[in-house]
Amino acid sequence: MTLFSFSEAVALLAAILSVLMVGSGNLRTNLLAYALSTAAIALVAGLRAGILGESHLLLIALAMVVIKALWVPWFLSRILDRIKVYFDPGTVLAIPIAMHTGIVLMGISYLLAGRLPLPVDGDPVTGSTTASISLLFTGALFMLTRKTAVSQVVGFLTMENGIFLFALTMARGMPLIVEMGVLLDVLVAVMIAGLITFKIQKSFEHIDVTRLTDLRE
Amino acid sequence: MPDILEIDMKVLIALIAAPLALAVMALSLRRIAVISSITSLVSWLQFGASLYLVAPLFVGAGSPVPILPGFLIDRLAGSFLCLTTLVCACSLTQAHFFFRRQLAAGAEVLQRVRLFYCFAVLFSLSMQLVFLCDNLGYMWIAIEGTTLLSAGLVYHNRDRNAVEATWKYLIICSVGIAFALLGTVFLFASSRYGAVPGGTLEISLLTGSAPLLEHQLRRLGFIFCFLGYGTKAGMFPLHSWLPDAHSEAPAPASAMLSGALLNCALFAIYRLSEVSTATGQGAFSSGLVLWSGAVTVLVSGLFLVRQHGLKRLWAYSSIENVGLMLVAIGLGQAPLFFLQALNHSVAKVALFLTSGSIIQITGTKYLKKMRGLAQLSPLCALVLVLAAVSVCGLPPFGSFIPEWVILLSTGQAGQWVQFGFVVTGLAVGFIAVTYHVLRLVSGSPRPRQPLSTPDLFVPVCLLLISLVLGLMIPEFFWGGP
Amino acid sequence: MTDWLLFSIALIVLPFLTVGTIRLLKARLQNRLGPPLLQPFYNFFKLLGKEEVVSNDASWLFRFCAVANLCLALFLALILPWLSFKPVFLIEDLFLAIYLLALLRFFSILQALDAGSPFGGFGASREATLSLLVEPAVVLSLAAVAVIARSTDLGDMFSFARPHTLHDLTVWSTAGAALFLASLAELSRMPVDDPTTHLELTMVHEAMVIESSGPNLALVELAYALRLVVMFGLAGQCFIHALFCVIHPQTSTLAIISLLVIFAMILITALVETVVVKLRWTRVPEYVAYAITMALLAAGGAIMGRMT
Questions:
Q1: Are C286 and A16 a contacting pair at CB < 8 A?
Q2: Is pLDDT at A177 greater than 70 in this prediction?
Q3: How many CA atoms are closer than 13 Å to the CA of C292, on its beta-carbon side?
């Protein structure tokens, strides 16, 4: 089994983990599944560093593991501890149906990935392109069907994972500074979102964002 | 031309370093009066510095001047840089008076005002960086930076409404920006198919080798970037964060958000449409931009009819102007785009700063509760009416010319449906704004506490600038970017 | 000949051994000594000698269903390829197997209803609901395997002689995971149902067998043990096939690995029963959704493989 097909399999595993994340209403389980999914993507980055010999990918993989797979879930679970919320209070779509929708979207992303042009050098990357589009869809599904503020942040981060995986496989050679800048922005965004979640709980006594309707006319 | 490049660098470094120093100072000094005065002074120096930087570009042939790898300045970017520094300077000057009054009335916490200044100067820095970027990745980072820093500004009041507005702003804009990142990745991928060896994110290189870009990926990239930066610019239907954010932020921050931040996002959209046009198959993308602009103008005009808050009213008017600027970009006319941005920013900043004073005077931000402004403070009422009229595009103020030319160009291009949308939107918007403002100004006021004269120096100056812009028709702007 | 001998020994020994191992492992994990390893074996013979107490409302179906269950379980053990060294029987059709599984459930439900007790009634209804939820997972994962094997003959599907490509790895592993999760639900183990509960209102499987005693109970427990070992064996074979896509061990090694995989699943079951909390009945569909998701992934992967 070549290193390349192994990295494709790991990318698909990351997408499957994020679909399984949709199937749980326990916020901490969601964070765990997100952390594992991100770690899988960092592994893909590390493997590609080995395949292509681009050592800056190793640096990005390491930064990703430290920031997005370790620090972000830890920070968000600490926020959850402080506001004492453990379950999603009710989702727009029933959780099992949402998970099946995630699978259907994965099938659609396979069809979409087949229609994109093949990369200009290297082998066809249908597996990881499917995984990245599926991560985008799953993140969007998660954001749209969940009501908790923390769930919205996790959905957004899943979408960012999908975009990163896409950049890794379709658009090789993106400058290091851009990737690092993106990671930094995500870090700061999560910090701010966490603080604001805490403030939402203090002001509104809940973190159900569908009930944030004071400003609507 | 080595001379120009060298002068650029020293002044440029001063331009970048000043806000960082100001931010540190804002967090360390004690007295607010000192912080705000130094900040206003330095921001006016920044404006002067940017004029000095940009002047040589307009003298010679006007070709773009590269600064560092990934950074570039050309006429359009330079003009927007001056506009942004002007907007920030005016807002920060007015902020001095605004917070002085707030602190005197006991409605403000010292630490928060310090944080406000810190965020405000860093925000202005990141906005200036957007215009200097040639690399799409750096531009993305700068725009995401503006989102994060302005969230701090919107969060200033810390009450329920501010928290809700900040949350919506952060989430909607971050998702939009994530789409823009995806579009950026698509564009990078499209450049690897023979256009540039190894791929590039530099807009100048992308434009230069545009016909060689891979067609499907480029189109996808443009659509996603347009969706993403369009969310940031507040185009319909992704505008729902805009009224909340612009009305909950304190007045000087609202002025900066409406007057400068929207321009950043629209500038990014313009650069991308340049890439599309250079391929020769840009009809799809310019059509898309034109349609979005027209629909945004129509819908926001309709939204303006029923409004309850003063600053929300002006936020929807900003959305309308964003639509107009999108129409200008869709027609591919850069000078028109800049002219509309310039006039809109000048008038909108005057309007927001005046509204801030009015809200301070009347003690409420709801239109129903503010009546009889003409009797409370005639000067204030006059300035408000003139500023409102200026934003709506009535001659002799400056906004009239670009709106008129936009309509003419739309007609010339044969896009009659969009023309109809824009005309209807502008007309309905004008009627709505006039209705609200006149209802505010006339009538008899409810008895309030004794007033002092509002601080209207800055808005009045801006209105004069708008008048001047309207009365002289600058040949300058038709010269091309 | 040796094939059949080895298989008969496995068939006789393994059911008792697996049930005994689960109980022993759970006991040791809970810091108890636990029953001896072959206790289910001793229980079987003890129960055969005991007097039977039958409800007055029960009919001939009561005894008939127990016997029918055992016969069906033995037949399924003969046709389902749950061990790598299982000799191929006459007919090994996939759809026959699926329908026989359903028939097995049908007889259990009938037996529970026949005794006329309310516990039997709601146990039967819960079992029916559960099998309704779980069946898509089982059918889809086996169908996915059939698609990549291009035949519905179980012997062909699970044969090691076919070429195993790398793409099959995803299908086999997800099908195996789906079958394992689904069998935990079908066999009424945690987290769906606690097999050691005393509270009748929480029972699913136990409520169905609560009326049986003596020889009837012995037959019912043997049928259950056979089902357990066969379903775990089937899931284990899927995982072994997934492994086979990467490395190719010899046949004798495969036999040992088959047995080891069954015991690995027993260990996981024991761990799950010790650590995991039983789900509320209204949340069982969420758990089953995971099994169906894995099965959908397997089916999707198989179809995509055929399309390209």
A1: no
A2: yes
A3: 24
Count of all residues that appear for chain C in the document:
308
Q: Is the CB of residue B286 less than 8 Å from the CB of residue B276?
A: yes
Both tokens of C175, joined, read 């099908």
- Smallest CA–CA distance from B193 into chain A, residue: A120
CB under 8 Å to C129, separation ≥6 — which residues?
A: none
CA distance B236 to chain A (A): 16
pLDDT level of residue B481 (50, 70, 90 thresholds): very low
Going by the DSSP 8-state scheme, the letter that residue B475 receives in this structure is G
Closest by alpha carbon to A21, among A169, A135, A168? A135
Out of A1, A19, A23, name the one closest to residue C286 (CB): A23
Confidence check: pLDDT of B60 > 70: no
Token digits of residue B86: 């002007």
Average pLDDT over residues B120-145: 90
Q: Using CA of residue B180, residue B185, residue B188, residue B193, what is the dihedral sign?
A: negative
> Which of the residue ranges B176-180, B395-399, B433-437, B444-448 would you say has the lowest mean pLDDT?
B444-448
> B120: distance to nearest CA of chain A, Å?
17
Q: Give domain limits for chain C.
A: 2-307
Other Cβ atoms within 10 Å of A162 Cβ, number: 27
Contact of C280 with C123, CB cutoff 8 Å: no
In our burial notation (b when 16+ CB lie closer than 10 A, e otherwise), range B358-379 reads bbbbbeebebeebbbbbebbee
Question: For residue B472, what are its two tokens?
Answer: 């002289």
At C33, list the tokens.
Answer: 């000594």
Does A11 score more than 80 pLDDT? yes
Q: Is A53 exposed, middle or buried (0-12, 13-18, 19+ CB in 10 A)?
A: exposed
CA distance B290 to B282: 12
Minimum-distance CB partner of A166 among B137, B182, B199: B182
| 3-state secondary structure string across chain C | CHHHHHHHHHHHHHHHHHHHHHHHHHHHHCCCCCCCCCHHHHHHHHHHCCCCCCCCCCCCHHHHHHHHHHHHHHHHHHHCCCCCCCCCCCCCEHHHHHHHHHHHHHHHHHHHHHCCCHHHHHHHHHHHHHHHHHHHHHHHHHHHHHHHHCCCEHHHHCCCCCCCCCHHHHHHHHHHHHHHHHHHHHCCCCCCCCCCCCCHHHCCHHHHHCCCCHHHHHHHHHHHHHHHHHHHHHHHHHHHHHHHCCCCCCHHHHHHHHHHHHHHHHHHHHHHHHHCCCCCHHHHHHHHHHHHHHHHHHHHHHHHHHHC
Name the nearest CA neighbour of C240 among C228, C229, C230, C248: C248
pTM for this model (two decimals): 0.85
Query: Does the ipTM surpass 0.85?
Result: yes
Q: Which amino acid is at B52?
A: Y
Report pLDDT digits (tens) over A89-119: 777 888 888 999 999 999 899 888 888 877 7
Chains A and B touch (3+ CB pairs under 8 A): yes
Q: What distance in Å separates the CA atoms of residue A115 and residue A130, rounded to the nearest whole number? A: 11
**pLDDT, position B34:** 83
Q: Residue B104 has what pLDDT?
A: 80
Helices assigned H by DSSP within chain A? 3-22, 27-52, 56-64, 72-83, 95-115, 126-145, 149-169, 176-204
d(CA B263, CA B271): 12
Instruction: Give the C-alpha separation, B15 to B9, whole Å.
Output: 10
C246 → closest Cβ in A1, A16, A100: A1
Interface contact flag, A110 C166, Cβ < 8 Å: no
d(CA A72, CA A32): 11
- Residue environment code for C52-72, b if the CB has 16+ CB neighbours within 10 A, otherwise e: eeeeeebeeebbebbebbbeb
**Two tokens, residue A41:** 């993507």
What is the mean predicted confidence (pLDDT) over A155-180? Answer: 83
Coil, helix or strand at residue B191 = coil
